[in-house]
Write a structure and sequence with these properties.
It is a single chain. This protein has 52 residues and is largely without helices or strands. It is flat, with a radius of gyration of 20 Å.
Amino acid sequence: MAKILCVLYPDPVDGYPTEYARDSVPKITHYPDGSTVPTPSAIDFGRLQEIT
């Protein structure tokens, strides 16, 4: 049986942040050599199921 740890924090006094750190993470579309980065839409997941 799994154990679950739940921690509750009080609500922030000044309200919730208007922006989060993940909002400022740059989106990488190309490697420095110009080739494109892999994307989930470019992966044939059906083919992966055939292999396993």
